[in-house]
């Protein structure tokens, strides 16, 4: 579909995790798009601006591809503009970013931003300036106030802290969806047949925050849209490995098949226990069986997911 000459309503932000605060922007952009007959769109960078501005890498919740997938599935966004953040973009004046980039290149007819959105060189662009400039240009503009849940201002930083601490259920409430990590299935140690569960082994994508080491009630979603419940271990697999590499290993329930080389989206819902080392594979198998019962019970008690 050629969208080059169509007007867009663009939600502005980095959108790491696409949490419920982000969804307020994205859903509003989708509604404005219906009103204007425009393409519901979102703008994001490939790397976090702080990585260049502060020279400190920010461990992220989601890759650009996972962010785009969440926006499309959850909020009806059709066009996700992923911009490379480099020195040139960092030094772009805020007015030029709007006039040349958003309006000129991407045909923005309406912009949606959060209450704390800053942009352009030295962050000189802010919501008030954005609204004033849009009025001059004849572009619509909405500024969305902060979103709170259970007295907490929803932010990617708060969710990162929860996930790093193993508070997955609380993180999921602030996200408004499961925490997702997508990767290509790699060959592991073939323990699935030994333990009685087929497994998928994924590498943690570069630059992403690893969830707290431990075992989670999860769901694995395959390329064809099918899914299975999964007992998913995040960590270094101390019972069978000694190289310290962080892996994501899902023990799939009620599945028989070959997924090697396929993309699998792992959806995390609840933290079951810390990662631990077992003396024997039999002990590991018994614990995975117990975790499988916990996982089935969790999803049975949450039929809405």
Compact summary:
The chain is built from ten helices and 13 strands. It has 305 residues and is of the alpha/beta class.
Which helices and strands occur, and which strands form pairs?
Layout: E1 8-12, H1 20-36, E2 39-45, H2 49-53, H3 64-75, E3 79-83, H4 87-90, H5 94-105, E4 108-114, H6 127-137, E5 140-144, E6 148-149, E7 152-153, H7 156-164, H8 168-175, E8 179-184, H9 191-195, E9 199-203, E10 214-221, E11 227-235, E12 247-252, E13 263-274, H10 281-300
Parallel strand pairs: 1-2, 1-4, 2-3, 4-5
Antiparallel strand pairs: 6-7, 8-13, 9-12, 10-11, 10-13, 11-12
Helix pairs in contact: 7-8
Written description of the protein model:
This protein is an alpha/beta fold. The protein is built from ten helices and 13 strands. The strands form three sheets. It has a six-stranded antiparallel sheet with strand order 8-13-10-11-12-9. It has a five-stranded parallel sheet with strand order 3-2-1-4-5, sandwiched between helices. It has a two-stranded antiparallel ribbon with strand order 6-7. Helix 7 packs antiparallel against helix 8 (168-175). The chain is elongated and about 70 Å long. The two termini are 32 Å apart. The model has no long low-confidence stretch (mean pLDDT 93).
């Amino acid at each position: 579909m050629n969208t080059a000459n169509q007007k867009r309503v663009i939600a502005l932000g980095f959108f790491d995790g696409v949490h419920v605060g982000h969804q307020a922007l994205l859903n509003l952009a989708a509604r404005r798009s219906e009103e204007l007959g425009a393409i519901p769109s979102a703008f994001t960078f490939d790397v976090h601006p702080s990585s260049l501005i502060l020279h400190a890498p920010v461990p992220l919740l989601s890759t650009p591809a996972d962010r785009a997938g969440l926006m499309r599935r959850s909020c009806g966004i059709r066009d996700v503009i992923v911009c490379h953040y480099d020195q040139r973009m960092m030094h772009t004046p805020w007015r030029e970013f709007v006039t040349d980039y958003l309006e000129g290149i991407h045909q923005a007819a309406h912009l949606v931003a959060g209450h704390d959105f800053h942009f352009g060189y030295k962050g000189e662009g802010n919501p008030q300036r954005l609204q004033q400039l849009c009025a001059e240009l004849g572009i619509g503009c909405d500024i969305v106030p902060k979103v709170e849940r259970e007295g907490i201002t929803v932010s990617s930083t708060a969710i990162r802290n929860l996930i790093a601490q193993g508070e997955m259920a609380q993180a999921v409430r602030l996200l408004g969806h499961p925490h997702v990590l997508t990767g290509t299935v790699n060959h592991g140690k073939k323990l699935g047949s030994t333990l009685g569960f087929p497994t998928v082994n994924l590498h943690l994508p570069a630059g992403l925050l690893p969830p707290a080491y431990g075992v989670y009630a999860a769901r694995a979603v395959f390329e064809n849209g099918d899914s299975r419940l999964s007992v998913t271990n995040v960590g270094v697999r101390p019972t069978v490995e000694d190289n310290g590499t962080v892996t994501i290993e899902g023990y799939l329930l009620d599945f028989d098949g070959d997924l090697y080389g396929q993309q699998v989206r792992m959806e995390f819902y609840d933290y079951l226990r810390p990662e631990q080392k077992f003396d024997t594979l039999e002990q590991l198998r018994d614990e995975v069986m117990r975790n499988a019962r916990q996982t089935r019970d969790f999803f049975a008690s949450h039929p809405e997911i």
